[in-house]
Specification:
- There is one protein chain.
- The protein contains 13 helices and 15 strands.
Length: about 350
């Protein structure tokens, strides 16, 4: 089969590699129908995630068809259409028993495209299938469903739930990329008084407004003063960091009110300063987290019901074999306007115009 292989920082290629095989009775083999690229994949390619060994097939999000199932698999069978979750879960360790699948110590957690071969391939082996793949209705567009493999549960769990968004809150989302936009969409489920989006790119601020942000502001246009003005100097109830650089994290801690919450989603490759000389007295809660994907069935139900705004995030579609071109478009989002790129899926071959 062919797959996107990581060869070290700055080097990937679409290579012929051996087909995956069932190694454990809990495994399934999935023929990939739709796959997407995550910002975390870009961090890997840059060398920010040293645990990824050269020779690893990248990717941790996919929709496809089960073609082989181990003898212990009970939830799916060959021929089933499934969502491959970004998180695999052994179901037996302490953290899995607590529903914290992202912290699995039994061989799961974030393994696909990280510690084992991932989904940016024609076929993928998925361990612990009963907890790691989700059956899909044939009525669901695979190019939309693939966004529920990672970005929507991540935004909802690590951003909205960790940030404890409540009715009437002022919520600031720093970073209006795919994760930030998914935060806006799912935060609105809790009826905040206002959502303020901050980003460098006007195209992404426009996307944030379309997703439901009440106010948008450029990162160089005084977002901290704007938040102060809109809250009578108090600060935001919840600030969600969805970029992953020191400057944006530190900005978030300056915009939160006393007793407020900062939820960090961004993947950080460099240290950020925690200004405890300012924060120690403010009763501020700061959370971090890797998604557990316990919300995936809920979100899939909303997608099937047509109540989750997913389609607008997909700006470009490619064939699976156009993986390297898709990476270039996604990595060059400042010029291409890319939000999410989808390869394969039910609408093959079309490269959509940028909104």
């Amino acid at each position: 089969m062919k797959a996107l292989v990581f060869h070290g920082p700055g080097r990937t290629s679409w290579d012929v590699v051996p087909d995956p095989a069932v190694k454990d009775p809990a495994d399934v083999i999935v023929r990939v129908d739709a796959v997407t690229i995550c910002g975390t994949d870009l961090h890997i390619v840059k060398g920010d995630v040293p645990e990824v060994a050269p020779g690893t097939v990248l990717g941790h999000e996919a929709v496809g068809e089960v073609v082989e199932a181990g003898s212990d698999v009970r939830s799916v069978r060959p021929g089933d259409s499934v969502l491959v979750s970004c998180i695999t879960a052994c179901g037996r360790c302490r953290f899995c028993r607590e529903g914290r699948y992202g912290q699995c110590r039994g061989g799961g957690g974030w393994s696909l495209g990280h510690l084992i071969d991932g989904t940016q391939a024609e076929y993928v082996r998925v361990p612990f299938a009963d907890l790691s793949v989700h059956p899909l209705s044939q009525s669901v567009d695979s190019g939309e469903a693939v966004l529920l493999a990672d970005i929507f549960p991540t935004a909802y769990e690590v951003g909205v739930l960790n940030g404890a968004v409540r009715p009437g809150d002022t919520v600031v989302v720093v970073g209006a990329g795919p994760i930030g936009l998914a935060v806006i969409a799912t935060a609105r489920l809790y009826s905040p008084a206002r959502i303020i989006a901050v980003d460098l790119a006007e195209s992404r601020l426009a996307a944030a407004r379309a997703m439901g942000a009440d106010t948008t502001v450029g990162a160089s246009e005084g977002p901290e003063q704007l938040v102060a003005d809109l809250t009578d100097g108090l600060g935001a109830d919840v600030v969600i960091e969805a970029v992953g650089v020191p400057e944006t994290f530190e900005m978030c801690t300056r915009m939160v009110r006393p007793g407020g919450r900062v939820a960090n989603i961004g993947v950080h490759g460099k240290p950020a300063t925690l200004h405890l000389e300012d924060l120690w007295i403010k009763d501020v809660t700061i959370t971090t987290g890797l998604v557990d994907t316990t919300s995936t069935p809920l979100l899939l139900g909303m997608l099937a019901a047509g109540t989750l705004p997913v389609a607008s995030l997909v700006t470009h579609r490619f064939e699976l074999g156009q993986m390297e071109e898709a990476y270039d478009v996604f990595a060059g989002a400042a010029d291409t306007g890319a939000l999410k790129v989808v390869l394969g899926g039910q609408q093959h071959g079309a490269v959509l115009p940028v909104a």
